[in-house]
Design a protein that fits this description.
Helices cover 74% and strands 0% of the residues.
């Protein structure tokens, strides 16, 4: 008991340090993102509007170089020479150096006071193409971002998740008035979700981002919320296919289900779950570990759709690279808090189903999903459908802040690597 308590304290301290470091990184990244945006605005202003140049020499040089570029495109002896000259001009402009001057060809009758408009248009097209990721690249960046997200938020939110699950059980002995008892052994069973949430989260974001990008490229005319809904619907089944076994074991350890005890190892917990299966067949054990799979998907769909749609609403009008980690943390906390509060009844039902083995609650096995919710409301009161909502919303806001801050920062870094490689 003392050893377990000591590890719980160490884990809590580590989680707090991790949360503080995440906030510090988000703050630094926000400042850096603001500086980069300002620099980009200054560069675009100096290239597209010659009146913002620092000297008359720069203005005249810009006009002359644009005219020279037009002349070279007409009289260049070969396409390669013309292309090299344009690249030389763009290089000087990008480095804020006075462009080189050329003598005008007699056949060039254009006025020096009128800059050529074709070059900025070509630059804009090039920039747009170079900053657009393919569906495959989106899936790779989503995979890496999802891995980082799942690792960080699982560690930080786990004690609140344990408290939520314990408060949601029928006839529970845990209350908010007895916090020491509520949070005792709150890190028990964390190994299982850590092992499964990382690949599950990576797969979810990889599938979601790739699907969303593919639908955009298909140009079906769907609104943004519809793209998000379709992407989440496709990403959820494989996500819970990976995560469900660990979620069952984790839930039973958290609530101290029959046969599970404080400090129980993950391997022993899986052995107990398989031993409780009806019969010794592989299908029977598989069924036990996937107890509540459909309920998890039903719960996850509205929860994730609401979360991502609300997040997109808060960040509307901003490109992916324009959402700083700090903004992502705030938007993520609010959107996840709303989503989790609304879907609390679905969470109560799924956790109750996973907490018991198949056959231990035969009275409810023949009831439909809605009938089970109605039964809880009638027999225990409507408030029981929102049991554990206080730690649940707190966990959701913390989790959402970490998720979207980590996700946006990691995804921006991966996207920059793909853009640089083009």
């Amino acid at each position: 008991m003392q050893v377990a308590s000591r590890w719980v304290i160490i884990a809590l301290i580590a989680s707090l340090l991790l949360a503080l470091s995440s906030l510090q990184v988000a703050a630094l990244a926000t400042a850096k993102s603001t500086t980069i945006r300002n620099q980009r605005q200054d560069n675009n202003s100096s290239i597209n509007k010659s009146v913002h140049s620092k000297s008359e020499h720069s203005r005249r040089g810009f006009i002359a170089s644009c005219t020279a570029a037009g002349a070279l495109s007409i009289i260049a002896p070969s396409p390669s020479n013309a292309m090299m000259s344009r690249q030389h001009i763009r290089h000087n402009l990008a480095n804020n150096d006075p462009p080189f001057h050329h003598h005008h060809h007699p056949s060039d009758t254009r006025s020096n006071s009128q800059p050529i408009q074709s070059t900025p248009t070509e630059q804009e097209k090039t920039v747009k193409q170079s900053t657009t990721l393919s569906a495959f690249q989106e899936s790779i960046s989503g995979f890496i971002s999802g891995s980082a997200v799942s690792t960080v938020k699982t560690m930080v939110k786990y004690p609140l998740d344990t408290a939520t699950v314990r408060l949601q059980m029928p006839n529970t002995q845990y209350t908010l008035q007895n916090l020491p008892m509520l949070f005792r052994g709150s890190f028990d069973g964390i190994v299982a979700p850590l092992l499964s949430n990382i690949p599950a989260g990576a797969v979810f974001f990889a599938v979601k981002d790739a699907t969303k990008t593919a639908l955009k490229e298909a140009d079906l005319g769907l609104p943004k919320w519809a793209l998000t809904t379709a992407a989440v619907a496709i990403a959820l089944p494989p996500y819970w296919l990976i995560r469900n076994p660990s979620e069952v074991v984790k839930t039973r350890i958290q609530v101290r289900a029959d046969g599970y005890y404080e400090g129980m190892s993950t391997i022993d917990a899986f052995k107990i779950a398989l031993a409780k299966a009806d019969g010794n067949s592989t299908a029977s054990g598989f069924s036990e570990l996937y107890q509540g799979y459909s309920e998890n998907v039903i719960y996850g769909f509205p929860a994730d759709v609401i979360k991502f749609v609300v997040y997109d609403y808060f960040s509307r009008g901003k490109g992916k690279a324009s959402v700083s980690p700090g903004e992502g943390a705030v938007y993520g906390a609010l959107s996840t808090g709303v989503a989790q509060l609304v879907t609390t009844p679905l969470d109560v039902l799924r956790n109750r189903i996973m907490a018991v083995s198949k056959g231990d609650n035969k009275a409810d096995e023949n009831l439909s999903y809605v009938e089970r919710l109605v039964k809880i409301a009638k027999e225990e009161g409507v408030e029981e459908l929102f049991a554990g909502s206080t730690p649940r919303v707190a966990k959701a806001m913390l989790s959402g802040a970490i998720q979207f801050a980590t996700y946006e920062e990691t995804k921006q870094k991966i996207s920059q690597l793909f853009i640089k490689s083009k």
